[in-house]
């Protein structure tokens, strides 16, 4: 009997099969990398027909990751990172950013695509503080009890869980909010969760129309996953975590490095990011102010104080 739900990268990571598009390789192609095939470039090009600057969106996602990791390792003092859905190595990987701030920061990358693991292990061969582990986001207990994860990270101390560009590849049938609850319940107090996710503004705008069409192309033209969700749905993945200012916002509104160089593109509005914090009971930290907002957003469109 055929599966009534769309095929997703979750159930069927394509590994070394070069006849099917892979999430990691399509992303690599979008970033301008070389580890991809014709099938992957086909999906990238179908997306680009609708969102010609999608490669800028991928680069914006990487810049956001760099800022978050720099903040966590440099300002907050987090020295352990679990980066799930790490992808193919590219320029400025999580461990490089974290270890610039703290040379002995420990990083474990996880991906369910064996090709990412092969490339990752080659890259990290000589880095004693970093590991690349095969694993599936949708199986939290298996992943968090993997020997290399438990040996390399101290799961009783605060850590940062990085989920950049992965949750939109988990379909609703797998209950992404429920999966996130299990991670958040397990994380020690004082931990952080960083998420970026495709966003459907769901407001009848041109951006909404683009989100609908992009979702159709991602899910029906070779990849099988890539869902654009509402702000409320994405906010629900943070569960009861406190959102660090400026909340869940368009990525370039999250503590930008400087003034914008061009007007915001429509496709750049279709990715939201946020950083959640699991408070230590009874301790009020002065390190950062948090948003109390349940829908993950501060009062102003641009997230107020993040504008610099
Ligand atoms: C779009 S890439 C994002 C790469 C990187 N995190 C970034 O933001 O630049 C998503 C990655 O998630 C991986 N992935 C998708 N579903 C996964 C799952 N259920 N478990 C682990 N990895 C998964 C894919 O193989 C791919 O490498």
Estimated radius of gyration: 18 Å
How far apart the termini lie comes to 56 Å
How much helicity do the residues have?
Answer: 25-40%
Which secondary-structure class do the elements indicate?
alpha/beta
How is the CATH topology named? Rossmann fold
Number of helices: 10
Shape label: globular
The whole-number mean of residue pLDDT values reads 89
- CATH level-4 homologous superfamily: Vaccinia Virus protein VP39
What pattern of helices and strands is seen along the backbone?
HHHEHEHEHHEHEHHEEEE
Oligomer: single chain
Give a list of the ligands: S-adenosylmethionine
Biggest pleated-sheet summary: 9 strands, mixed
- Secondary structure tally: strands: 9
The CATH architecture name reads 3-Layer(aba) Sandwich
Question: Class, according to the CATH hierarchy?
Answer: Alpha Beta
Please describe the structure with a list of short key phrases separated by commas or semicolons:
single chain; 308 residues; alpha/beta; Rossmann fold; nine-stranded mixed beta sheet; 9 strands; 14% strand; disordered N terminus; binds S-adenosylmethionine
């Amino acid at each position: 009997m055929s599966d009534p739900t769309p095929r997703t990268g979750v159930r069927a990571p394509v590994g070394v099969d070069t006849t099917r598009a892979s999430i990691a390789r399509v992303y690599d192609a979008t970033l301008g990398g070389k580890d991809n095939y014709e099938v992957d470039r086909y999906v990238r090009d179908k997306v680009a027909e609708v969102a010609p600057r999608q490669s800028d969106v991928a680069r914006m996602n990487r810049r956001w990751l760099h800022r978050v990791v720099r903040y966590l390792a440099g300002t907050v003092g987090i020295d352990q990172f679990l980066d799930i859905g790490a992808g193919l190595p590219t320029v400025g990987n999580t461990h490089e950013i974290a270890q610039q701030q703290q040379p002995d920061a420990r990083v474990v990358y996880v991906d369910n695509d064996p090709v990412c693991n092969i490339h990752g292990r080659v890259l990290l061969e000589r880095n004693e503080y970093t590991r690349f582990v095969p694993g599936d986001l949708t199986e939290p207990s298996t992943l968090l009890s993997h020997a290399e994860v438990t040996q390399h990270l101290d799961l009783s101390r605060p850590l940062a869980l990085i989920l950049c560009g992965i949750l939109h590849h988990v379909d609703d049938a797998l209950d992404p909010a429920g999966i996130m609850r299990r991670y958040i319940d397990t994380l020690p107090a004082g931990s952080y969760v960083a998420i970026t996710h495709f966003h459907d503004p769901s407001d009848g705008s041109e951006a909404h129309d683009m989100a609908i069409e992009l979702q159709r192309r991602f899910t029906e033209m070779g990849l099988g996953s890539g869902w654009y969700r509402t702000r409320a749905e994405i906010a629900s993945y943070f569960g009861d975590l406190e959102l660090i200012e400026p909340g869940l916002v368009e990525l370039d509104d999250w503590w930008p490095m400087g003034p914008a160089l061009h007007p915001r593109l429509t496709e750049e509005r279709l990715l939201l990011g946020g950083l959640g914090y699991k408070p230590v009971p009874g301790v009020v930290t002065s390190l950062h102010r948090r948003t109390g907002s349940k829908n993950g957003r501060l009062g102003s469109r641009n997230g107020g104080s993040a504008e610099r």
